[in-house]
Sequence to fold (539 residues):
Amino acid sequence: MIDENVIRIDSLSKSYATGNGDTIRALDEVALNVRANDFICIVGPSGCGKSTLLRIVAGLEHASAGSVHYRDTMHTGPTREIGMVFQEYSLLPWRNVLDNVGLGMEFAGTPVSERLRVSRSFLKLVGMEKFERAFPHELSGGMQQRVAIARSLANNPDVLLMDEPFGALDAHTRILLQKELLRIWEKNRKTILFVTHSVDEAIYLADRIVVMSGRPGRILEVMELDQPRPRDRSNAQYGKMATQILDILEKEVSSSV
Amino acid sequence: MTGKIRVSLYRAAWSLVIPILFLVAWSFLAAYTKNDIILPRVTQVFELLGHPSADLISMGSLIANILISLARVMAGYFLAVLIAIPLGVLMGYYGSVFNMLNGFLALFRPIPPLAWVPLVLAWFGVASVATVVGLQYGKWYIYLNNLKLSMIFIIFIGAFYPILTSSIHGVRNVKKTLLDSARVLGAGELSIFLKILFPAAAPSIVTGMRIGLGVGWMCLVSAEMLPGSISGVGYLITHAYTVARTDIVIAGMISIGVVGALLDLVFRYIEEKKFGWQRLTR
Fold:
């Protein structure tokens, strides 16, 4: 039987040992299927393990129990099929923009001319083609994240994981980049798993929203959204959805405080 | 005259105040003591420094001795660079390698290079690089016989630890996100080392190389006091002392200082030119 899910997460749990011998349960029995071309947003209170979930899917951390399957094979370490964009700026500060975008292809041994061609086309896609000679420290936070997105896409991953990529940006830049991300996504329809603590961001972007509980992180609810994009923030349905999710989160947070 | 030039002239003048006061005080003290063995006159010392290729107490010129010393320091220093950098990078990256080696290496760290002298003499005696490669005569024998193994070892010990420590720190301080993002882009272990760890740690490693070269250069005099030495600035100083030529002692000391400061300057230039990004990155 062929699994139509790109990523299948089965009863995934993760515990950490702290310095004083206690164990912290970060994730508890998380199960989620990600279909091809899905745009899924994961929302939850801070510290609910949503970033940990993403890091396990990326292969950067190991699960304590349960499993992650990528296209029917057990997934254990990082692969270039699953790309990731981080919240912290992750460009190599000693390389210019163009050489940063080509990094993944450099690891894969792609010939230089091909690398430059692909890098330039993705820089154009994120609107950074005029800055290919610039160094990361010369760019604003929003520009750096654009380049980081171009770098992930230039590696042509099957799935793109995004860990609060706009979390460190100011509100205006954030809304601008959300729009940009949708525009790019409409073009290539990558499967995206996007972690955020902003309910608004999730409703603006996602096909499905996964609401997670506080520690240990469990999935409380999965909501399907079928409103056409671009979504209007002043729409009544948009507001209703936001209230609904915030209610779930509020109950969750007040029960754990 | 533009303001910019005026500012830099002013700065240059300001930085000369203390050296000039120093020379004036020296002249007064020398005139007061009237004893060339205790404190020679400034002019006497600068006379020697002004003719660096003149033969001194039949030991060759100042320049020749500096070059011999430089060759020795470089031999010990390159050995230290060659071993300390890879070792430091591995120790900084792999906790297991660090745990295995750190306790052992920390034991040797506090031992002053000079304390190694008796042991080093027992091991190497007057053997030189020429002995190792099996040369016993000829032009190359003369060059290589100046590079005594004992001296190279002392300088190696001095330069080794600063380079090792800064390599470990450089690798440890590499932002975890840089490593993670390289891994999800498909980097193998070798790529991680060559394209992420090494360039990211390079500023710190180069700083360690600068400090290591300084320490290695400082070990020179103790190294050149070892038996078998008949040349080098360190030996020149000790020999000039035994024949009561304090002016040569001071000229030799100034040469050591100037050469050390020049080597430091070269490294600082590299740090600024190549690693400006580090200062500019948050």
Remarks:
- Residues 62-93 of chain B form the longest helix (32 residues).
- Chain B touches chain A at residues 175, 177-178, 180-188, 191, 195-196, 199-200, 202, 275, 277-278, 280-282 (CB under 8 Å).
- Residues 159 and 212 of chain B are 4 Å apart (CA to CA).
- Chain B is about 75% helix and 0% strand.
